[in-house]
Amino acid sequence: MKHSTIQQTRRGHRGPARQLGRTLALVLPVVLVLSGTLAVTRVNWSGDPSDSVLAATDVSSAGDAKNAAPRAPQDVLRDQLLTELQEKNPGLALGHLQQAVNDRPSLARHCASIARALGRAAVRVYGPTRAQSYSRPVCDTAFASGVAAAHS
């Protein structure tokens, strides 16, 4: 067999395997893009479990005292201080944060994250200028950095 005959045979052969390969080459990228797009749209980007399409647990049972896991002390403190910030003012909440850290030194490692959360919440409630006016030297400058982060 000559070289030119082999080339013609290869070019002229359009069997079912080649046709299937071409079909997959065209269809597979489209399928992958669509499935990836659908996966991204179903992810709960808000962080709110009640908005989740793929929630693993029933959110309505989350309020049951029997099913609730004990909360960490820093989480309880943060929630109390956020409530106090909304009902009273950030200065009072920061003072109580400092007092809580002084009373329970184990909370010191959580002080900055709590103060930043208070700063972000203060911007939502009072606006950036008024929130910054409540800044205190509690946990270094964590409250101020929370205000700045929420404002930018």
Question: Which terms summarize this structure?
Answer:
single chain, 152 residues, mainly alpha
Any overview of this molecule?
The chain is mostly helical and 152 residues long. Helices cover 64% and strands 0% of the residues. It has helices at 3-12, 16-41, 73-87, 90-103, 111-126, 128-133, 142-151. The radius of gyration is 30 Å and the shape is elongated.
Summarize the structure in short.
The protein contains seven helices and no strands. It is mainly alpha-helical and 152 residues long.
- Approximately how much helix is present in the residues? 55-70%
Task: Provide a count of the helices.
Answer: 7
**Residue-averaged pLDDT, rounded?**
76
Q: What letter string, H or E per element, gives the SSE order?
A: HHHHHHH
> Structural class of the secondary elements?
mainly alpha
Distance between the termini: 75 Å
Radius of gyration, taken over Cα atoms and rounded to an integer in Å: 30 Å
The main sheet comes to: none
Shape: elongated
Strand content: under 5%
Poorly predicted ranges: 51-63
Q: How many β strands by DSSP?
A: 0
In terms of topology, how is this protein built?
Blueprint (H helix, E strand, L loop, with lengths): L2 H10 L3 H26 L31 H15 L2 H14 L7 H16 L1 H6 L8 H10 L1
Helix pairs in contact: 3-4, 3-5, 4-5, 5-7
